[in-house]
Design goal:
Largest sheet: none
Number of helices: 13
Mean pLDDT: 83
Helix content: 55-70%
Number of strands: 0
CATH architecture of the largest domain: Orthogonal Bundle
Low-confidence stretches: 274-278
CATH topology of the largest domain: MetI-like fold
Shape: globular
Order of helices and strands: HHHHHHHHHHHHH
Radius of gyration: 23 Å
CATH superfamily of the largest domain: MetI-like
Strand content: under 5%
Length: 278
């Protein structure tokens, strides 16, 4: 039994090491390539001997305003998270704490909306963006991003909202609290792990989104970073600046890594809360 347990532990650590290597290698390779120039780009060295930051400088000195695209992505992602969290927590309160007919069907419908691929609703979303006067405006991307993020956010927050003790709500009502005060002053402090988990997923979705950003925005100064990176090109097809592209990819990835590292404890508690009932 002890030998079997030792063998199982060794296999577990081995599999974990393989998963970590496979997950980290693309990012390490991107960092390595971003520090290479010239013929060094075509070598397999992970630790370049003549590393420099020329590719990073080229990003911000080129024709494409990469710095402005970075600011655009930050603004759109934070606004998407703010709107999704605000509407999500209020909708979750109604769906999780209030009894009414058709609640189950409504929840299933919300989940069904999130299953539609982006290309299936692209033409209709384009008409909506144009009718709202938001075409070729970076803040207009907040509308489709929120629409696609909201169903998942509502579904997850509703699950957490249902598990909160009913005594807290009853006590708040006895003290004269209205629904909004109950949501934001009583329930929200208890929902932080769930809010962080869903908010981070919403941020990642908005940060990495490509199709809507490419379709609804055509001006270089209004683009987000995924589209800005895709438009980096050389003078000819044989002169694609791979080092600059990798530098842009590294810059885009680092904020997500920092967010996950900073909120990792809340993310884990948010994803595991409610999995085991005492």
């Amino acid at each position: 039994m002890k030998q079997r347990s030792t063998l199982a532990s060794v296999l577990l650590y081995l599999i974990s090491a393989i998963v970590v290597i496979l997950s980290l290698y693309p990012f390490v390779y991107a960092i390595s390539t971003s520090l290479k120039t010239g013929n060094a780009l075509f070598t397999a060295d992970l630790f370049p001997s003549n590393a420099d930051l020329r590719n990073y400088r080229a990003l911000f000195e080129g024709v494409q305003p990469f710095g402005k695209s970075l600011v655009n992505s930050i603004a759109v992602s934070f606004l998407t998270v703010a709107f999704a969290m605000l509407m999500g927590i209020t909708a979750a309160y109604a769906l999780g704490r209030i009894r009414f007919k058709g609640k189950g069907l409504l929840l299933v419908s919300l989940l069904g909306v999130s299953m539609f691929p982006q290309v299936a609703v692209l033409s209709g979303m384009f008409e909506l963006i144009q009718s709202l006067g938001l075409y070729n405006k970076v803040l207009g991307l907040v509308v489709p991003y929120t629409i696609f993020t909201l169903p998942f956010t509502v579904w997850i927050l509703t699950t957490f909202m249902r598990e909160l003790p009913g005594e807290l709500e009853e006590a708040a009502i006895m003290d004269g609290c209205g629904p909004l005060r109950i949501i934001f002053q009583v329930f929200m402090p208890l929902l932080w792990p769930a809010l962080v988990s869903t908010g981070l997923l919403a941020f990642i979705g908005a940060w990495n989104e490509f199709m809507f950003a490419l379709t609804f925005v055509v001006s270089d100064t209004e683009r987000t970073v995924p589209v800005a990176i895709s438009l980096i090109a050389g003078a000819t097809a044989f002169e694609i600046p791979w080092g600059t592209i990798m530098a842009g990819s590294v810059i885009v990835t680092v904020p997500l890594l920092l967010l996950v590292f900073f909120f990792q404890k809340r993310i884990v508690s948010g994803l595991t809360a409610g999995a085991v009932k005492g």
